[in-house]
Amino acid sequence: MTQAIPVRVALVTGASRGIGAAIAQSLARQGRHVVLVARDAAKLAEVEKSILDAGGKASVHACDISDTAAVEKLVDDVATAQGRLDILVNNAGITRDGLILRMTDEQFDEVIRVNLKSAFVACRTALRPMMRNKWGRIINIGSVSGLVGNAGQSNYATAKAGLVGLTKSIAKEMAAKNITANVVAPGFIETDMTGVLPQQVKDYAVAATPLKRMGSAAEIAGAVAYFASEEASYTTGQVLAVDGGMTMY
Ligand code: NAI
Questions:
Q1: pLDDT averaged over every residue in the chain
Q2: pTM
Q3: Topology of the domain comprising 9-242
Q4: Can you give the residue ranges of every domain in the chain?
Q5: For residue range 140-194, what is the model confidence (pLDDT) as tens digits?
Q6: DSSP secondary structure letter of residue 113
Q7: What is the CB < 6 Å shell around ligand 1?
């Protein structure tokens, strides 16, 4: 007799808008209970409502993910309240761009704290409940900047490249526990984060993209949904660039 698959519980950081909201909605459509995390409780509630209205399962936790103790408590609370934690998507991220000669220690440290250290802490805490169930999926949202570098983003590219090393190390340490870890590295995606960029920068990025357009948050969510799926059980330690072909060279 085959065992019934339980309702998987997924925690998605930075789920109040953009790519994170699309990932949460997509995982909910697949029948997962999705725990939405970001700082802005009101915006999180809007995303939660969109999931509940569509017949999905969701709950929200407002949290600043740069606060180590808060992240540990959040992950523990979710695993206790839901009785399990199966899928962790570290998506929250910020940019503090600037050329390296003018970049301050604060700009560098803040991006490392929010984009990299928070993912390390969330993974470390989430791995315990995953190990208990001998099943887990970690998906870290990197960036093409972390793969090929980007002028003006030495802090951000360092954090995103760090996520690749973190993910591959977890993939090796946790393989025997049936826990996979992978990275989705978006290219140039239409969200609030890129909305603030000057038109000239957008035109340049689109010109450097073989598919000649920006991507959508839903196109990133599709890749995350694959890595989170039951069928992705033989895929670990991988980096999938979803970038319109930008880094295929
Ligand atoms: P966004 O700026 O629209 O959303 C970021 C999310 O992270 C928001 O929900 C925000 O509240 C949350 N967040 C930021 N700092 C936080 C903190 N300290 N505590 C809790 N939550 C926090 O960004 P977007 O575009 O949706 O990006 C999502 C991820 O995708 C980020 O990791 C970003 O680096 C990555 N990415 C985005 C690309 C793009 O073109 N938009 C390209 C490559 C990677």
A1: 97
A2: 0.98
A3: Rossmann fold (3.40.50)
A4: 9-242
A5: 999 999 999 999 999 999 999 999 999 999 999 999 999 999 999 999 999 999 9
A6: I
A7: 13-14, 16-20, 38-40, 64-66, 91-94, 114, 141, 143, 186, 188-189, 191-194
